[in-house]
Amino acid sequence: MPAQNVADSTLAWDASAVWHPYTQMLTAPPPLAIARGEGAWLVAEDGRRYLDAISSWWVTLHGHAEPRIAAAIARQAAELEQVIFAGCTHRPAAALAERLRRRLPAGLERLFFSDNGSTAVEVAIKLALQYWHNLGYPQRRKIVALEHAYHGDTFAAMAAGAPSPFTAAFAAWSLPVERAPAAYCYRCPLGLRRDACSIDCLSGLEALLAADAGEEIAAVLVEPLLQGAGGMIVHPVEFLQGVRRLCDRYGVPLIADEVLTGFGRPGKMFACELAGVAPDLICLSKGLTGGFLPLAVTAATARIYQAFLSRDRRKTFFHGHSFTANPLGCAAALASLEIFESEPVFERIARIAAVHAERLPALAAHPRVGDARQLGTVAAIELAEGAGDYLAGIGPRLQAFYLERGVLLRPLGGVIYVLPPYCIQPGELHRVWDVVAESLDRII
Ligand SMILES: Cc1ncc(COP(=O)(O)O)c(C=O)c1O
Q1: Distance 181 CA to ligand 1 centre (A)
Q2: pLDDT value, residue 388
Q3: For the segment 378-393, what is each residue's pLDDT rounded down to a tens digit?
Q4: 352 C-alpha vs ligand 1 centroid, how far in Å?
Q5: Same structural domain for residues 277 and 190?
Q6: Which of 5, 176, 178, 272 has its CA 20 to 30 A from that of 343?
């Protein structure tokens, strides 16, 4: 690209006018000015190249600027870029809903579109609350969520997330949420050793559901198998299966927040599929469009949907966004599903999982590492000291070290995780792990 005057540069304009997410603007280093994406790589304006080992906040699936998705969006933009979705429909949305429905865990039949992961969760919570309201049980308005949970930054999603520095300023506005233990095996909530575990941590959820006896709890909300922002915590499949059993026993809908885990990350299309579990509501976003555009889906069972069908218009789900089911996003999502069907995406996923599995044992043995864990394409190591503190200075120091070596990683406090796009080559992924290994000896 042509040389820029310093005063007209991206970084100068950014510094004078932009407010970045999850960024302390006083102390954060200047952002990378990224000009292009190519597969697993990001290319900065100054020509430096960075291997995107976190899929740009967990969204990029097949690679940056993937040509088939880019072309699908361009074609769609030339035909219909946007239309109101109340009273109108369009081919990309209808086709996507139909196609996705066939891939979802059994029983999820109705798809409600929104824009991002937080709104997908917000919609699921509102659907669960209004489901009970429409059935004549308005007192059922509590959500059960897990310790260490993260579900997004809008108010209901934030309330369902575990208290953290992210949510402290808004605690007074919280919704009624009950918190159940998560299967964080490294820090077992019951203090048990792994070889003594029979998923006893489920007893916390069972106690809540039993005590409630169908009075106030409207739904149980979980990130299935993998709690992302809480520290890339991997649960045994038996935990999710147990949550489903308890929800069935106590007649409470289960919401699976697959915003992160959807679309292949766990090694299957969905974490619920891996565990053989069918939720009552599922939340999808991030990888839905291959990571190209903001789009989300909340899918519901027929039973939930039917509670909204009435001649009484007050039972309508009065929720929608200006860009609900935006045609460009739907076209991107269809193109991404097409890639799943026409290319060996699950072979690529298995290759990533194999490299992670090959590298983790040596990292786990490092004296600074407390735990190493993996779910399919997602792998993490947790430092033995200071990992629980998101605000600890170690995270930014590690990140700077990785960037100097051309690798984009963003540790969650002292949890260093790798979550690459599926097009990454084994040699590139080994390079990421080499840099992580080096950091353990070099960064205090
Ligand atoms: C499990 C989960 N749910 C919801 C969200 C919120 O998604 P978004 O950032 O698109 O609002 C995230 C984001 O990281 C997530 O990991």
Answers
A1: 20
A2: 66
A3: 999 999 986 667 777 8
A4: 23
A5: yes
A6: 272
Q: Is residue 276 part of a domain?
A: yes
CATH of the domain at 214: 3.40.640.10
Of 171, 256, 178, 175, which is closest to residue 210 (Cα–Cα)? Answer: 178
Q: Is position 52 within any domain?
A: yes
Listed in sequence order, the residues at least 6 apart from 137 whose beta carbon sits closer than 8 Å to its beta carbon are: none
- How far, CA to CA in Å, does 71 sit from each of 221, 242, 285, 335, 396? 37, 43, 21, 9, 37
Beta bridge partners of 412: 415
Structure confidence at residue 7 as a pLDDT band (50, 70, 90): confident
Q: Which two tokens stand for residue 34?
A: 């990224």
pLDDT at 164 over 60: yes
What distances in angstroms separate CA 336 from CA 73, 215, 292, one per listed residue? 11, 42, 9
User: What are the residue numbers of the active site?
Assistant: 22, 150, 257, 286
Atom of ligand 1 nearest to the CA of 157: 4
Residue nearest to atom 7 of ligand 1 (CA): 117
Sign of the Cα torsion 116, 117, 122, 125 reads positive
- By the 10 Å C-beta count (0-12 exposed, 13-18 middle, 19+ buried), 243 is classed as buried
Look up tokens 């999850």; give the residue.
22
Ligand 1: which atom is nearest the Cα of residue 154? 11
Ligand 1 centroid, distance to 337 Cα (angstroms): 20
Confidence of residue 198 (pLDDT cuts 50, 70, 90): confident
Q: Which domain holds residue 432?
A: 10-62+344-442
- Residue 170 inside a domain? The answer is yes
Which residues have any ligand 1 atom within 6 Å of their CB?
116-118, 121, 150-152, 223, 228-229, 257, 259-260, 285
Outline where 80-195 has alpha helix (H).
91-103, 117-135, 155-160
Instruction: Count the domains in the chain.
Output: 2
420 in the same domain as 351: yes
Q: Which of 60, 259, 297 to mutate to test the pocket of ligand 1 (most atoms within 8 A of CB)?
A: 259
